[in-house]
Structure to design on (312 residues):
């Protein structure tokens, strides 16, 4: 699995901390005067001693402070919004910056007891997260099963049978309420590059990560709007109805298509829909389905597509 998000730069001084996390152990330094130390250093900030040892500790902590972030610090984190960024206080007294997982913001309390979660990222990195001591979150988040990475579709719904010849039944599908979400898929740089080669839309904001980091207003490469739009074919919308009685069903195009929000490379997308209108036309019954494709965690859609489906 690829990974587009920044990861820590391990140094000679901090290496024992990261090595411990790879073994699912929390390690911090202690000086010969029994002072506990974090972040990793060459000397004790309390007494100046340079006689430091790395010790394994339980990782048990309490919540010292937290905030709910809804604007990503970097574009690569767009699909992780909102994030619960926190400072925790270990039993040994040191403070560690972290992210809370498996918790809802409304349930978080300062002073809350927490336990460590080892977040395995692709490659060799393991990050230290925290969750409530009674949380159902696993102790280890595996790289191949990170939250939101699964491509599994939503559970199948019981579908109403609606005849396209029954005008009243077709009109009953019209709603202002959107459906539940589809499955999620990752929009990788590889897929962006492949679409660029196929379509000719190879502008640098899509295909040049280095230039995009310095010159693009988005801070990273973004997917072509047309690519995101066609990826609806891989997003399984949770339809709760089935149209029957037609001899043919035709994708008649789009009545409206907008690319309202960028999709940074490496982010996950999902979609939801509503039936916007139903109209009898000369050749049959025309249904307008509004499909909104969002970056996971973003309220504003990236693609708005009023898809026209003709039942003949």
């Amino acid at each position: 699995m690829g990974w587009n998000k920044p990861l820590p730069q391990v140094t000679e001084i901090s290496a024992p901390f990261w090595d411990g996390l790879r073994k699912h152990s929390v390690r911090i330094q202690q000086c010969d005067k029994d002072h506990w130390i974090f972040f990793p250093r060459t000397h004790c900030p309390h007494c100046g001693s340079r006689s430091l040892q790395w010790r394994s500790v339980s990782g048990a902590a309490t919540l010292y402070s937290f905030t709910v972030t809804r604007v990503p610090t970097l574009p690569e984190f767009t699909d992780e919004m909102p994030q619960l960024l926190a400072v925790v206080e270990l039993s040994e007294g040191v403070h560690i910056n972290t992210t809370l997982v498996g918790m809802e913001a409304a349930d978080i309390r300062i002073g809350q007891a927490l336990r460590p979660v080892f977040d395995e990222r692709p490659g060799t990195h393991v990050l230290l997260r925290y969750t409530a001591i009674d949380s159902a979150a696993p102790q280890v988040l595996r790289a191949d099963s990170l939250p939101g990475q699964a491509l599994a579709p939503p559970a199948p719904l019981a579908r109403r049978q609606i005849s396209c010849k029954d005008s009243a039944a077709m009109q009953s599908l019209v709603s202002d309420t959107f459906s539940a979400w589809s499955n999620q898929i990752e929009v990788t740089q590889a897929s962006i590059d492949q679409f660029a080669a196929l379509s000719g839309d190879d502008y640098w904001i899509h295909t040049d990560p280095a230039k995009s980091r310095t010159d693009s207003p988005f801070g990273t490469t973004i997917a072509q709007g047309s690519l995101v739009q066609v990826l609806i074919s891989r997003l399984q919308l949770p339809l709760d109805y089935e149209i029957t009685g037609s001899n043919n069903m035709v994708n008649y195009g789009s009545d409206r298509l907008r690319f309202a929000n960028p999709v940074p490379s490496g982010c996950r997308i999902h979609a939801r829909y509503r039936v916007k209108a139903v109209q009898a036309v000369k050749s049959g019954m025309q249904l307008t389905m509004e499909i909104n494709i969002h970056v996971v965690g973003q309220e504003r859609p990236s693609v708005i597509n009023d898809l026209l489906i003709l039942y003949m």
Notes: The helical segments are 15-22, 167-171, 189-199, 204-207, 209-215, 225-230.
